[in-house]
Predict the 3D structure of the following.
Amino acid sequence: MTAQQSATRAPARADFDAQHDISDGSDPDGDLDETMADELDFDLGTVLPCDELNSVLVADDPRAGLWELVDSGWAHEHLPELPALALAQDPIHRHKDVLAHTIAVVTQSPPRLRVRLGALFHDIGKPLTRSFEHGGVTFRNHEAVGARLTRKRMPKMGYGTELTEEVARLVHLSGRFKGYDTGWTDAAVRRYARDAGPLLGDLNDMVRSDCTSRNVKRIEALHDALDRFEVRLARLAREQAAKQLRPELNGDEVMAQLGLRPGPEVGRAMKFLLELRRIEGELGTVEARRRLDAWWANTGAADDAREDA
């Protein structure tokens, strides 16, 4: 960190503390200061702050651009939560500079706007939740607080409602995966996927990028856990799809098609149709009836005749 960077970040941090009264580690469950994001008035034709930020985020390597936004004072004006992440080092409770970590995470993430916005905002709740207890620094509930900050800040930069909600959701879920190797059940895996919904791919990419440790084994362990999670989730999805798969004809339709009464031969016909669906996918009822007739003529009727004999 250069002297110029230090000089720039210190007043930004002090101003953020005064504006949000977080010097005592505000209660993350309390109401956030409604004045945390100044109202911005945009003139027609003015380049919006979101456009300026987007141009930096979609670059292959956004590091220099992000540091320039901080050091030039742009972030202090339009995104003060970002320079506020340069948390002062405590001589007893040592912890990394969250701003440097955030920029590294953004850089490591895929150059897709939604993912990089999630990476940029994923730790912004830490200044409001920082606490020195039990011999170390903690940031309890910082993901939930960060999601609330995201929902307030992004619209004031010109972002639309849909993207804002998606990024806030990524921020809220960003720390969930950390408990995976403690022994998640299949139900917990499904719940994680269900909560992420269509954002699951972006969330996993963001989590995969959220490790800036110099310990190679730690990075490899995180990536291995994510790989195993994705394999497990794919297996569960296949099993769930198999359970939900149904023949294209129901029992009544089968009996009407083959002229049968309720009995074991209907069950055999339904089993045939289910296997047909699994192997060939959806054929349509017309083709399914044709296949059923052919199967019954070649196999089903013969089996029925043997049973009668």
